[in-house]
């Protein structure tokens, strides 16, 4: 074999050895990443299910670790929805429930979007605040997350006006459910078109109408006129923010 041929052969062997090492490291890294993801889900499940897992084994046998955790979190927010809790505690507990319902739905359809993760993380944060007694420190102000958009400024105006007017005191569940339904609806419209958003927009509209009616029934005419004026001001501020396009990039909704 000539010297040049020997050099080429040596180079090839070195190249393939290095390539094999790179591929091996890449495979190992991927396996470790997958392991970390599974471990994280298992830890979440253990965090929320360790105290009552044995009582719910039949419903868990076909669930993933994440589904188990979400189900257990749902059970844990229920006590904060009871009549002995403050309206603000109940509002946050119902909002956590709404986010968990969203996360469970996303998991059930094997969605790869960030919506399910955002919903689960938001619900978990709320639940921890309720457990720690710090829910009063959570701002009632709700910006629209990046996965969603402002598509019904009239409904968002009503939500903000009711919050400013202590509407949560009379309709904590309706306020919480309508808010998450609006975010859910717009997210669906951006991802899959208006046919996938209609049901959630209608749900948000119904919940919000119930909240507004409860507020009207609990207050005098002068207070209700003030609420309507506040809704109009918010609508005038929010309407220009709705581009009319099915594009989700989030939206800051500052109080006025």
Labels describing this entry:
256 residues, mainly alpha, 9 helices, globular, disordered N terminus
Can you summarize this structure?
By secondary structure, the chain is an all-alpha fold. It is 69% helix and 0% strand. The longest helix is centred in the first third of the chain and has 47 residues, at 3-49.
Provide the residue-averaged pLDDT.
81
Profile the largest sheet: none
Q: Which structural class fits the helix and strand makeup?
A: mainly alpha
Distance between the termini: 85 Å
Tell me roughly what share of residues is in helical segments. 55-70%
Compile the SSE list and pairings.
Elements: H1 3-49, H2 57-60, H3 65-77, H4 87-108, H5 115-132, H6 153-164, H7 172-192, H8 198-218, H9 221-238
Helix pairs in contact: 1-3, 3-4, 3-5, 4-5, 4-7, 6-7, 6-8, 6-9, 7-8
Structural summary, described in words:
With 256 residues, this protein is an all-alpha fold. Helices cover 69% and strands 0% of the residues. It contains 9 helices and no strands. The chain has helices at 3-49, 57-60, 65-77, 87-108, 115-132, 153-164, 172-192, 198-218, 221-238. Helix 3 crosses helix 5 and helix 4 packs parallel to helix 7 (172-192). The model is unreliable at 2-12, 15-43 and 53-58 (pLDDT under 50).
